[in-house]
Amino acid sequence: MLKAAVVNLGCPKNEVDAEKLAHLLLESGFELLAEPDNAAVIIVNTCAFIQPAVEEAISVILSLAEYKKSGSCRVLVVSGCLPQRYGAALLDEIPEVDLIFGADGFAQIPETVKGFIRKRQTRCLVNKSSDLDYSKINHLPQQISPPQAFSYLKIAEGCDNRCSYCMIPAIKGKQQSIIPEILLSHARRMVADGVKEINVIAQDITAYGRDLNGKPTLCALLRELSEIPELGRIRLLYAYPHRITDELIELLAAEEKLCNYLDVPVQHISDPVLKAMGRRDQSRDIRATLLKIKDRVPGVFLRSTVMLGFPGETEADFKQLIRFIEEGFFDYLGAFTYWPEDGSPAARFPDQISDEVKRERLQTVLATQRQLTEKRLKEKIGCRERVLIEGLSSESDLLLQGRCDFQAPEIDGLTYITEIEGDLAPGTMVEAEIHEAHEFDLFARVL
Ligand code: SF4
Questions:
Q1: Given CB 3.0 to 4.6 Å as the disulfide criterion, which of 15, 143, 162, 232 pairs with 196?
Q2: Which residues pair with 41 in a beta bridge?
Q3: Which of 13, 163, 175 has most ligand 1 atoms within 8 Å of its beta carbon, as the pocket-test mutant?
Q4: Which residues of 10-44 are buried (b: 16+ CB within 10 A; e: fewer)?
């Protein structure tokens, strides 16, 4: 039995691919190791949508290549966005790498690795982004490792939007939605494996189904997912403001299983900046949509993302963004400085902003939002909330950690259970009373 280890980098969409690859390797007779140090086969699933991610991927690959010198690693494989973006050139740049696979190619890894061990022929299996066909991998189930209480359900890959700063469409190709039948079978399988919370993801979940025959909608999919008996809750991430419909807002308000939470990346609020970014929204549309959600879904938590220092962003544009953030639409906000990514249209725009100004604007946004988030979480003291137990806290054995409906995995804070009575296994959904808020985390006792 060949020992293999999968090292995953990047976003939750990559995490889904890595889980599918893990399942495939087990099905193909490999032994799966959690760590690479004794693995004969090491697979690095990479992210490459921005230069810092490219550099991280290369440094991880080079550090793992050390295992080839020590002799434990016989095959070093790279998959995902880095090979998809750079193709065979990657093999020239990093000769330690034996095999590379593009964004839709990881299903071929097990057999190609076995073939490589026999013939030792370096191979590049990367299709052009315009020829990517995700239907080859959509049906593959994810390896859920109990006690995993939550999982991601990727409902589409690629993107049809054309934000001027973004390389994802060029890397991952046009949007390809996954048919509802496959998604429902994935979800049922996850729930059978103990998952209680499903996080629905894509580059833009609100564009779901537009490319499929019969144009199944996101709302129809969510209604069917909500009918899975043992599934506790569903959270929506990466909703494009432009496509948030009244139907989706009504469903968010009415459907018990849908978390009172929505992630709506807006990127900016100044119309000239939004236009230059190639975003489909104008400030009044964004504002109207957010007001409608807040009005129709009482107590909803909104997360968003903004970008600072986009070429041509004036001091006045920035001040407009700060005033918008101070209005308190968002409970959580991710903020990033603009990066002039090679190959993206915006990298050639005039009026590029200095790194110093970008950093200053970023700090101002983070400081402004921190107060709003802390205030919002303090308002939860004394409230009863549904908490999904994830297990013992990494901070202390005296604490259990979990998340409320309004805390997304890996990006928002945690809820610590301070008084533990009886066995609260991971995946248990409990009702708890919040008694303390500390920065982005909450403390609660089970009722
Ligand atoms: S919506 Fe825009 S930022 Fe997001 S993946 Fe698509 S092109 Fe990139």
A1: 232
A2: 4, 75
A3: 163
A4: bbbbbbbbbbbbbbbbeeeebebbeebeebbbbbb
Domains of the chain: which residue ranges? 3-127, 135-378, 384-446
SS3 assignment for 335-403: EEECCCCCCCHHHHCCCCCCHHHHHHHHHHHHHHHHHHHHHHHHCCCCCEEEEEEEEECCCCCCCEEEE
- Burial label, 209 (beta-carbon count in 10 A; 0-12, 13-18, 19+): buried
What would the two tokens of residue 303 be?
């997360």
> Which tokens hold the place of 172?
């991952």
Q: Which amino acid is at 289?
A: T
Which atom of ligand 1 is nearest to 169's Cα? 7
pLDDT digits (tens, 9 = 90+) for 324-383: 999 999 999 999 999 999 999 999 999 999 999 999 999 999 999 999 999 999 999 999
> Tokens standing for 345?
């249209």
Give the CATH number of domain 3-127.
3.40.50.12160
| Ligand 1 pocket member 143 (CB < 6 A) | no
Query: Under CATH, what is the fold of the domain 384-446?
Result: OB fold (Dihydrolipoamide Acetyltransferase, E2P) (2.40.50)
DSSP 8-state symbol, 409: T
CA distance 260 to 256: 9
**How far, in whole angstroms, is CA 223 from its chain's centroid?**
22
The pLDDT tens digits of the residues spanning 53-106 come to 999 999 999 999 999 988 889 999 999 999 999 999 999 999 999 999 999 999
Model confidence over 190-227: pLDDT tens digits? Answer: 999 999 999 999 999 999 999 999 899 999 999 999 99
Pocket test for ligand 1, best of 13, 172, 201, 203 (most atoms within 8 A of CB): 203
> Which amino acid is located at 444 in the chain?
A
Q: Whose CA is nearest to atom 5 of ligand 1?
A: 203
Q: Domain 135-378: which CATH class?
A: alpha beta
| Residue 412 near ligand 1, beta carbon < 6 Å | no
CB 222 within 8 A of CB 252: no
The string of DSSP letters for 144-179 reads --SS--EEEEE-EES-----TT--HHHHH-S-EEPP
Pair of tokens at residue 446: 């089970």
For the segment 18-61, what is each residue's pLDDT rounded down to a tens digit? 999 999 999 999 999 999 999 999 999 999 999 999 999 999 99
| Rounded Cα distance, 290 and 331, in Å | 12
Neighbour order of strands in the sheet with 233-236: 150-154, 197-201, 233-236, 258-263, 301-308, 332-337
